[in-house]
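Exercise 7.
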Amino acid sequence: MVRAAKSRASQADASSETLPRWTFLTNHAHVLTVLESEPKLVLREVALRVGITERAVQRIVMELEESGFIERERVGRQNHYRVIKHKPLRHPLEAHKKIGDLLKLIKS
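Solution. The predicted structure, written as tokens, is:
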């Protein structure tokens, strides 16, 4: 019984090392970063890169678009996205910085 518990504990430790339990940036920031670097990417691919479901990416893109942080242009059967870099960050602690500042920080 003790051996099985130790085995489960070591497996849990190993799995927590491969998948972070939390990150410093939100999924919104991750989606924004991916779309800024590859504006023609399909949302299915964005979801794979961020590590969330396609439905979650669709919701995030809708929220970002409704809030004016991205613009979507339909080109044939594809969507192209443009990040509005001059928009200020939303939280009062970061409102003195712009989306472009965040993207520069992540890229560097």
